[in-house]
Amino acid sequence: MAQDTLDTSLNFEFWLNKAVAWGQATTLESQQDVCLHLPQLQKFLQQIYETLKHMDFHTAIQRFPLIGQLLGRLCWNPFVIGYDENQKILMWCLCCLYCSEPWNTIELEVNIWIRSLLCHLLSSSKLGLNEVGTVSQALGYTSPDYYPKLLKNMVLSLANELRVNHLNGFSIGKTIPDKQIKAMSLLCIPLLTLPDILPLLEALLTYQGDESKEILCSEFLEGVNESFLQKKIALSESAVLSLWLRHLPSLEKATLHLFENLISRHRNASPEEMECFIKDSLLPQAACHPSIFRIVDEIFWNALLETNGTSEVLTVIQVFTRCFVQAFQKNNDQLKFPLKSYFPYTSPSLIMVLLQNPKDLPRGLWCQHLNHISEILKKIVEDQSTQSCRSLFEHWFLFIHFGEWADIAAEELLMLRAESPATLLWLLAFYYNPHDQNQQRTQTMVDAAEAHGHIMKLFGRTPLSVKDLQDVTDTRHPRIQRLIRHLLLNFLLLSPDGYKIAQEFIITQTDEIASELLNLIARITYRWNRLGVETQRPAKLAKDLLQELQCYTMKSEFL
């Protein structure tokens, strides 16, 4: 008798007839019969799943021609999906039938039907409160809290399934088939922004199959990335890292999204505000993985070349680098990658000296450190064995990342703290004119030294006028205009009388030059604040000047 009962419970036709008779369990008799058979039904569904997961769509239909009718009817029975792990098992069965690459109209229609069932199982709008009222009370829930608890438990169960590779508490022996994971990822696309679905999204993103090729569908990865960028979902750092490692287009889009926002939508943002935007993007944290860092860096490299190194682009790269260094040092004990893996084509000794935080050095040693940086770069530039264009620009680009040292060099030149001004002038000349050949570099140094001497004479000029400043920036040295403006701006911030005419001088410049000077002021005040000199007079004046100029710029744009 017991054997007969077992045979009956595993009979497909028996359960299909039961599903038809039950309907949506609207009568007391059908509800009682459903409850009586639920344990046996779950056992049957488990065995169906174990069979389906090893079959493709056509084989499954040949073996179970009416499988669609059975699963469809059971999915609409609130007593069935409300029992134990039935909802999850039904979802796995549906995923086994999903055609990842449909070839005909029938397969396309089956996919649409399966998606609608998945949405029904996971969407609260599909489960009306009247429909589940009786079963929710039987389960000990009130109607309003039935759906959230059911959905949350089901999602957590699916997520756990992905992590430990077992179904309903017993081992399945092998990992979940890749086709089933791919189907699940595709079916999650309409549900990406549901808060309760988040654990499943993260489990899918961090799931690794047996094969080297990607098993999650690209539409799912793109959808998750887009939802993350639009702040519609909040992913953990590990999930974001996994997303960008397994889907290069998403990483590229995230980098461009951040870059374009900082350059266009938040172009008036201070470096402090930029730092918040950058950290919030999770890109610096993810860039602690060298593969991600190099891709992000390549995008910055292209932006730098395409814009001819505008001040805005330089600021973005330098603030991002600072955020990356903070994340790298924070994770240093957890994730060890050699620095060479981030900058594989540059000198390790140059990396180490540039990484040195100025705040960790006594101010009296800054010039000595700058001389060391200059000597290393000069040796690299003059070494004939590294005269390939790419090698030279790789080292220049590395210096751009840590451009704070160039800002310090300009300041030290104006404060007369440099024992060898020519060494720091060479550093600034390389910063702004890396493409110079030997003869050009020699002429650049002559012009830079002349301009520096002219600016130093302004410290004793009283009264100081805008014309005096314009005389320095005349076209006698067109190739080093940006270097001259860098020095001149430091003079305006550091000299007793320069601040008084700084605003007047800046607003007489072209929009492009004025924007460049504003970015320089913002970078200087950003550095001074971090170094703890914000209470000193030059820092306070620079901050006030920046606010005044930004107000003037906004007013001019409005008018």
From TrEMBL:
<dbReference type="GO" id="GO:0006289">
    <property type="term" value="P:nucleotide-excision repair"/>
</dbReference>
<keyword id="KW-0539">Nucleus</keyword>
<keyword id="KW-0234">DNA repair</keyword>
<keyword id="KW-0963">Cytoplasm</keyword>
<dbReference type="GO" id="GO:0036297">
    <property type="term" value="P:interstrand cross-link repair"/>
</dbReference>
<dbReference type="InterPro" id="IPR000686">
    <property type="entry name" value="FANCC"/>
</dbReference>
<comment type="function">
    <text>DNA repair protein that may operate in a postreplication repair or a cell cycle checkpoint function. May be implicated in interstrand DNA cross-link repair and in the maintenance of normal chromosome stability. Upon IFNG induction, may facilitate STAT1 activation by recruiting STAT1 to IFNGR1.</text>
</comment>
<dbReference type="GO" id="GO:0043240">
    <property type="term" value="C:Fanconi anaemia nuclear complex"/>
</dbReference>
<comment type="subunit">
    <text>Belongs to the multisubunit FA complex composed of FANCA, FANCB, FANCC, FANCE, FANCF, FANCG, FANCL/PHF9 and FANCM. This complex may also include HSP70.</text>
</comment>
<keyword id="KW-0227">DNA damage</keyword>
<dbReference type="Pfam" id="PF02106">
    <property type="entry name" value="Fanconi_C"/>
</dbReference>
<dbReference type="GO" id="GO:0034599">
    <property type="term" value="P:cellular response to oxidative stress"/>
</dbReference>
<protein>
    <recommendedName>
        <fullName>Fanconi anemia group C protein homolog</fullName>
    </recommendedName>
</protein>
